[in-house]
Amino acid sequence: MSVKERIKQLRNEMRKRGIDACIVPSSDPHQSEYVAECYTARTFITGFTGSAGTAIVTLEKAGLWTDGRYFVQAENQLIDSGVTLYKMGLDGVPTVEEFLKETLHQGAKIAFDGKVISMEYFRGLKSSLESREFSYEVNEDLVDLIWKDRPQKPCSQVVLHDVVYAGESRESKLTKVSHEMKTMGANYYVISGLDDIAWLLNIRARDVKCNPLTISYVVVSEKKYYLFINDKKINSDVRRELEKANVEIMPYESIGEFLAKIKDGVILLDVARISTWIYSSINIKILEVMDITTRFKGIKNDIQIKNVRKAMVRDGVAMVKFITWMKKTIKLRDITEIEAADKIEEIRSAGENFYDLSFASISAYKANASMPHYAATKENQATIKAQGLYLLDSGAQYLDGTTDITRTLAVGPLTQEEKTDYTLVLRGMIDLSFQRFLYGTTGSNLDIIARIPLWNAGMDYKHGTGHGVGFFLNVHEGPHRISVIPNNIVLKKGMVVSNEPGVYKEGKHGIRIENLVVVQEDEKTEHGGQFMKFETLTLCPIDLEAIDVALLTNDEKSWLNDYHKTVFEKLSTYVLGEELEYLKQATGAI
Amino acid sequence: MSVKERIKQLRNEMRKRGIDACIVPSSDPHQSEYVAECYTARTFITGFTGSAGTAIVTLEKAGLWTDGRYFVQAENQLIDSGVTLYKMGLDGVPTVEEFLKETLHQGAKIAFDGKVISMEYFRGLKSSLESREFSYEVNEDLVDLIWKDRPQKPCSQVVLHDVVYAGESRESKLTKVSHEMKTMGANYYVISGLDDIAWLLNIRARDVKCNPLTISYVVVSEKKYYLFINDKKINSDVRRELEKANVEIMPYESIGEFLAKIKDGVILLDVARISTWIYSSINIKILEVMDITTRFKGIKNDIQIKNVRKAMVRDGVAMVKFITWMKKTIKLRDITEIEAADKIEEIRSAGENFYDLSFASISAYKANASMPHYAATKENQATIKAQGLYLLDSGAQYLDGTTDITRTLAVGPLTQEEKTDYTLVLRGMIDLSFQRFLYGTTGSNLDIIARIPLWNAGMDYKHGTGHGVGFFLNVHEGPHRISVIPNNIVLKKGMVVSNEPGVYKEGKHGIRIENLVVVQEDEKTEHGGQFMKFETLTLCPIDLEAIDVALLTNDEKSWLNDYHKTVFEKLSTYVLGEELEYLKQATGAI
C-alpha cells in the first residue's frame, strides 16, 4: 500500500470520527529516541524513516516536520507521497503549531495516540494553540486501524547486568531512589524511560536495536517495587533475582489500571517522559520533577568508570585494527562505505564483552560526510578512493560500557582546505578537552570553547558539541549535554559526555573528531573554588596525516602528544605486526 | 524606634489578624531594582539597606535573606536587631521556602503586600510550599500600619525625552507595541516596569535616585493608550504632547479599577513585572509573555548608538580628568574614598547633557574593593595612599546615554600578585571584547570567555560578566545579560551590555575592569552564517602601570594598542595641558 493510499484510509477514519487533524510523532510510549518497529507509525504514514520528525495529517493536507540532519533524506523519501516537507528552523517555515493555527477552522478537533505523546509536549501544544478553540481527542491511535501488518511488540529476553559491571546492586539503587522520592514528599514514583528502568534494575534486553532495553514501566512505592512487563521476557533466574530485590512482575498493559487504583498520597513523575495516557490515569496528587533515575544514572560510579576505561582499550584496539586495514587496503584498491562499516563491526564484535553496536555506523566518504547523520545504502553508497577524507562514526555496547567514537581519516592526498578544516576541528576538540572549569558550570556555558577556532575562521557546525553517554545503555543519554541551547544541568564528577566538533561543506567534505570524556575533580582553590576537568576516555590515534601542524598552538600540540603517548601505552600490548607498526607511527610526537 | 520595637509592633498586628508569617521583599509595585524611599519597607523592618534581600517575620523568628554581595554589610547592619542573617547560596543555609516549611505549622497563614510581590514570585512560592497546607493573605501591608513617618510617594516632574536623543517618537513606539500586541493575539497590554514606560513614552523624571523614572502604569489598547500617574507630575506641555500621541492621563491609584472593568478580550502581561494585586484585578483572559517593551527597548536604534558614542566621549574625558587628578594628587597627599567619589561626580556633572549619576559611585581602596558592592561611608571609609590598587566603578545619566565604567588604578607601587591578577582580569575583558560569535549565541554561552584566563590561574569572580544597560535609563536593564546562569536571550545588533570581569581577594585587593560594548553585525559566511561582534563604546585608558605585559598574548596586546589609539583619537581634542599629557602617555603602545 502506498503512502498516498494510507493517508487516504487515515482520512476516512478521521471523517468517521469528526477529526480534523491527526498528529503522528516519532516516539513510543516511553518517549524513546530510537523505537521498536511496531512504534514507527510516523514512518508508516509518511515513508520517512529518520529518527526525529512529526507528521500532521488534515483532511486536505499532510506534512512532515523534521530538522536539519534529515532534510536531504526526507526530501528523497517524501517524493510522490503527497506529504509536504517542513524544514524546521528555516526562515518562513511554519512550526507544527503555526500550521495547525493557519490550517484549521475555529473549533476543530485534533487527535493523537495519547500513549506516544508526552504530557510536556501536549501541554506545550495546547498552550501554543490557546488562542484558538480546538478540542483534543487524546486516545485515538488511528494509524493502528489501517496498519494491517503492524509488527508485534518486541519480546526479547531480559538478562541481568552483573554488579561487577554496574558497580551498584539493584537493591541499593531501589533503596536510594525510594528514599529520594520520600525526601521529595512523594509516596509513589512512576518511571517510563526504558534506559532509566534498565539502569535501576540492572537488566538489559534487545527490544530496540542498538539500545539494550526492555519495554516496560516501573512503579516505586515506599516498600515495594513493580515492574510492568510482558512476563514471557522474564525467565526464572531473572524473576528470582528481581523478587529478591522486592520487585513484583506485573502485566505490561495493567499499568494504567494499577495507577488508577491508587487513591491516596502523592505520585512523582517526569512530564517529559510520561505519556498523556499514563498521566490521565492518575487520580492522586502529582509531583512533577525530572526523573530521579535520570539524575542518578547520569553520574557514573567509580566501578563503572574503571570498567569503561577497559572497554575503551578494547574499542581503541578495534579502531587501530580498522584504521591499519583501511590505510593499507585503500592503497591497493577501492573500498565501499558499507564494506568499511561491515569491517569495523566485524572487528568490534569479536571483542570481549561485546553485546551490540551502540548505533548504526556512519561510514561516509568525502561529500557524503557533510551530512552529519548520513546512512550509506547499497543503492547509493560511495566508493572510497585513495584521496581525500573518510569519516567513521561508530561505537559498541559492551557489558562494561558504551563507546562512541568518530575519526576522520586521510585516505590519500588532501587539499590545503581539507587540512585547515581538519586542524580547526581538532583545535576545538582539544581546547575543550583541556579546559578546566568551575563547579557549577553547565554544558551550555562550555559549548563554544570547541567552536571558537572555527568561528574565528568563519565556520560553524549545526549540532551540539556533545551528548551524555550511557553505561551499556543508550548512546544518547541525559540529563547533561554540551550545547549552546540553555540548560541548567551542572557538570558533575562521573558524567560521561562526548566532545565532537565538526565542519560540514556540502559537496566537498565532512569532518568530525569525537572522543568521550568523563568529568573529574580538579584542584580546589581559595579564590576560585572547586574546579572540574575532563578526563579523555576514548583511546585511538587522531590522524596526524590530516593535520596542518602550523595551525596548532603549543598547548594544543602538547595535549596531542600527551594523548598519543597515552594511547600508545594503553593499546600497544594488544596489537602486533603491522598494527603495532601503525600504532607506533600514528602516535609519534609532532 | 528600634528594629526590635518595630518587629514587636508588627507581631502585634500579625496576632490580631491570625497571621503566622509576614514576607517583606525589597521591591516596589513595579518590581524595580532600586526603589523610592517610601518603598523601603524591608529596610524599615530590618535595618538592612542593601538593594536586594527579603525579610520574613514570624511570631517567634525574624530573618533576612540576601546574597553574597551584601553578607558583610548585612552582618553589620543586623547587629542587635534580633534579625537572623541567612546567607543565600551557602551550604546548609535554608531558602525562604525551606525556612517557612520548617518553621510554620500545617495550616499557617502567610501574609504580604500583594502590590510589591510579583505574580511570578508568588507562584514560585506557592509551588515550593505546595506540600504544606498554608493559606495566603495577599493584601496585607502590615508594615504600613506601624511605619508612622513613612515618606510620601515621590512626585518629581515628568520631562519629555527629545526624539533627537531617543531616535524614535512615542507615536512610533506606541504603534509598534500595539501592533505586536495584536499580532500576539491580545487586545490589551498592561505595563508595570517603570523603565519600560519611560522608554515607551519618551518621558523621564526623578522619582528614583539615579534612575530617571516616574512611578506609573501604562495600559495599551488597540486604539488608545492610558498612563496611570499622579497628575501633579504632568505639566501642561507634557500633557499636550502625550495627548497628541493619544495617551490619556488617569489617576495612578485607578489602575486596578480600570482593569477590573474590562470584560472582553485578551490582556497581555509579564508575570515577572506585574504584582499579584494587578493580576488579581483582571477579569479577562491573560496572555503571559515577557514585556514587549522590554524586548524592543533592549535593542538600541542607530540614533541612540550615535548618541551614546557622543556621551562616551564626554564620560571618557571626565574619567581622564579624574585619573590625571588622582595620579597627581596621590603623589602629594592622601585622598579619602569619598573625596575621590565626590571628585568624579563634580567633573561629570559639569558635562553637557548631564542629568544624574547612573548609580552611587563605588570608590574603594585596596581591601575595600574586594567587596564588589562596597559603599564608602564617612564613618568607615579608607584613606587612599600612594601604594597598591584603587577601584572606581561609576557612571552617569546623560540625555544622550547612560554610562557605567570601572577602572582599577595603580596609585603607587604594586606587588607582583596585584599585577598578575590585574593582567588576568584584563585578559578576560579583552578576550570577550574581540570574540566574534554566531548569531543565535546568548550571554550564557559567552560568559566564560572572560573567566578562562582567571580559571586557568585558579581564580573566579562571583558575579555575572555583564548586564544590559539602558539608554538614559536604568544602568541594569534586561532582557539580555552575560552570565553563566541559563538564559535564552539571543544577542542582537544594538544591544548594549557591560563587560566586567574581576578578581576579589578578601583583605587584599579587588580588581574590576569594565567597558560597555554594543552588539554589531560581523561578516556572514557560507559555512558559518551571520557572525556578530562587540563594538567597545567606553573610551578611557586602561592603566598600563598595572599590567604585566609578559602575560598578554599578541592578539591581546594588539587589541589593547588599537583600543588606546582610538581612545586617544576620540578624547585628545577635549583635554589640555597635564590631562593631554597624561592621556598621551596612558594610551601609548606597549
Outline of the structure:
The first copy, chain A, is of the alpha+beta class and 590 residues long. Chain A has 20 helices and 30 strands.
Structure in words:
2 copies of one chain form a homodimer. Chain A has 590 residues and is an alpha+beta fold. The first copy, chain A, is 34% helix and 20% strand. The first copy, chain A, contains 20 helices and 30 strands. The first copy, chain A, has a 6-stranded mixed beta sheet with strand order 4-3-2-1-5-6, sandwiched between helices. Chain A has a 6-stranded mixed beta sheet with strand order 12-11-10-8-13-14. In chain A, β3 (62-66), α3 (71-77) and β4 form a beta-alpha-beta unit. In chain A, α14 (302-332) crosses α20. The radius of gyration of chain A is 25 Å and the shape is globular. The mean pLDDT of chain A is 96. The A-B interface holds A 130-131, 185, 266, 435-438, 440-442, 444-449, 451-452, 454-456, 458-460, 484, 486-488, 503-505, 523, 525, 527-529, 531 and B 131, 185, 266, 287, 435-438, 440-442, 444-449, 451-452, 454-456, 458-460, 484, 486-488, 503-505, 523, 525, 527-529, 531.
